[in-house]
Amino acid sequence: MTGENETVYEMDNEKLVELRKHQFILLNLTFLFILILFLVLSMLDITTKQFYFGSSILFAIQLFLYLKFGKTDVLIHTKKMKELHKYEKKKLGKEERKQRNLVIGLQFFAIVCFVMMGTITPSEKFFNLLTFSSVFYFFFVMMILVNIITFIRNRAFDRNKNLEGFTMKMFLINILFVFFIVSILVISSILLIRL
User: Fold this and answer.
1) Based on CB atoms within 10 Å of each CB, which residue in 66, 117, 146, 159 is the most buried?
2) DSSP assignment, residue 45?
3) How many independent structural domains does the chain possess?
4) Where do the TM regions start and end (predicted)?
5) Of 131, 103, 111, 124, residue with least CA distance to 182
């Protein structure tokens, strides 16, 4: 093991806390950006189909960027995030490939789900069917859930020296999260069809 890799793997706790705080700041700034984007889109006459198919295209672009660069946050890949990714990749070891396959699988699943939503939902004006309070509520709940899941994942990652099976545990947590979100989308689509 080289001196550089050893430094990354045995990262100082104070430095690690700083990097994790930076990660959470970027995570929540991303949510804020998406919320602002939603509010901007609310001023346009987009349909439910356009929204879901547009979302599937964005997920496809993110998947392409991940396959090409190996990072889901390539557009906000700051110097501190590079250092954090380097630390995580080194510590994961053989689990890194499993995690990569997990990310690819989940993103592909998200693309399929949004395409399905775009197929089964009626072509109504998307934001005419939503209120600002419902949009804020949805994003607030999403932000809380993602922050909790990220905190649990980071805490388990940083405290455990043996990460064998770590990817599968995170996979189960992500499946529950995705199931929750998809359930909301499916129920919303069914209610729209009945209107």
Assistant:
1) 117
2) -
3) 1
4) 24-44, 50-69, 101-120, 126-150, 171-193
5) 111
Report whether 162 contacts 91 (CB < 8 A). no
- Provide the residue-wise pLDDT of the chain in tens; the chain has 195 residues: 444 444 335 578 889 999 999 999 988 998 888 888 877 777 777 788 888 888 889 888 888 877 877 666 555 668 888 888 888 888 888 888 888 887 888 788 889 988 988 888 777 776 665 666 667 777 887 888 889 888 988 888 888 877 777 777 777 777 777 777 767 666 665 655 555
Comparing CA positions, the residue from 43, 41, 83, 45 lying closest to residue 58 is 41
Q: For residue 186, what are its two tokens?
A: 């499916």
Residue with token string 């100082």? 12
How does DSSP assign 142-164, residue by residue? HHHHHHHHHHHHHHHHHH-S--T
Task: Yes or no: say if 37 and 96 are a contact pair by the CB < 8 Å rule.
Answer: no
- Residue 93 region by backbone torsions, left for phi larger than 0, else alpha for psi between -120 and 50, else beta: left
CA–CA separation, 182 vs 91, rounded Å? Answer: 32
Range of the domain at 89: 3-194
Helix or strand (DSSP H, E) at 84? helix 79-92
The residues, any chain, with a CB within 8 Å of residue 147's CB and separated by 6 or more, are 24, 27, 28
